[in-house]
Amino acid sequence: MKRILHEESTESAQMLEIYQRMLKKRATDDEVKWANEQFRDVLRTVGLGALLLLPFAPVTLPFFIKLSKRIGFNILPSSFNNKIKEK
Fold first, then answer.
1. For residues 23 and 55, what is the distance between their CA atoms, to the nearest angstrom?
2. Which of the residue ranges 14-23, 36-45, 66-75 has the most confident prediction, judged by mean pLDDT?
3. What is the pTM of this model?
4. Which residues contact 10 (CB under 8 A, 6 or more apart)?
5. pLDDT at 87 over 60
6. What is the rounded distance in angstroms from the CA atom of residue 19 to the CA atom of residue 4?
């Protein structure tokens, strides 16, 4: 978990650097696409935090993760998905 949070923090800092370069017209299209995907990850993390506030979160969170995958939407940040694939 610590590694995942460190990775997200590092990627978020890189995202902000890319957005700053984008404002100066110095970022490539690929960098901007990566930064946009990272921003989506940040939003997923915020949403995941909100789900943890629900009553019975240890039960409801896995339910919402499975439900989101069934409807074709992933609520987990990409760093969490990579960790799950490694196991």
1. 42
2. 14-23
3. 0.72
4. none
5. no
6. 22
Rounded to the nearest 10 degrees, how much is the dihedral formed by the CA atoms of 21, 25, 26, 30? Answer: 90
> Distance (Å, rounded) from C-alpha 46 to C-alpha 63?
18
Please count the structural domains in the chain: 1
H or E element that contains 3: helix 2-23
Tell the residue number behind the tokens 């990566």, with chain if given.
34
Nearest one of 20, 80, 22, 87 to 51, comparing CA atoms: 80
Domain containing residue 74: 2-86
* Location of structure tokens 């490694």: 86
Write the DSSP string, 22-80: HHTT-S-HHHHHHHHHHHHHHHHHHHHHHHHTSTTHHHHHHHHHHHHHHTT---S-HHH
